[in-house]
Amino acid sequence: MHSPMREIASEVAAVRHLSDRTVQSHIGRAMQLVDEYPAVVRAGEAGALTRAHVRIVTDAGTPLPEDRRPEFDALAAGLAAELSPGRLRTRLAALAEKLNPTKLTERR
């Protein structure tokens, strides 16, 4: 039996001429964005961020443990509203490194 999400993805895929897996991937990323980056979503809805900003935030935040993402989300939303995507990428890489306790432990 198919899940409702798979059925929706299949219908959207047929209309948009995309594969089911591509649509499922888009839906998964959208759900992750809403669940894990609410401040970034609000800033995007307000028009303060571009799609490039949002993609850079999620790419930089993905390696972080889930318990560090709320802090990263809040800080990243503020930075993203002030910086170009190119500069944002560098700043968020440094921020993610600072917030990731695993990386710090491995270096020591």
How would you describe the overall organization of this protein?
By secondary structure, this protein is mostly helical. Helix content is 79%, strand content 0%. The protein is built from seven helices and no strands. It has helices at residues 4-16, 20-36, 38-45, 51-61, 69-82, 85-99, 101-107. The chain is elongated, with a radius of gyration of 16 Å. The relative contact order is 0.11. The model has no long low-confidence stretch (mean pLDDT 89).
Spatial extent as radius of gyration: 16 Å
Given the C-alpha coordinates, what overall shape results? elongated
**Sheet of most strands:** none
Mean pLDDT: 89
Q: In terms of per-residue confidence, which ranges show pLDDT below 50 for 5 or more consecutive residues?
A: none
- Percent helix among the residues? over 70%
- Taken in chain order, the helices and strands follow as HHHHHHH
**Percentage beta strand:** under 5%
Structural class: mainly alpha
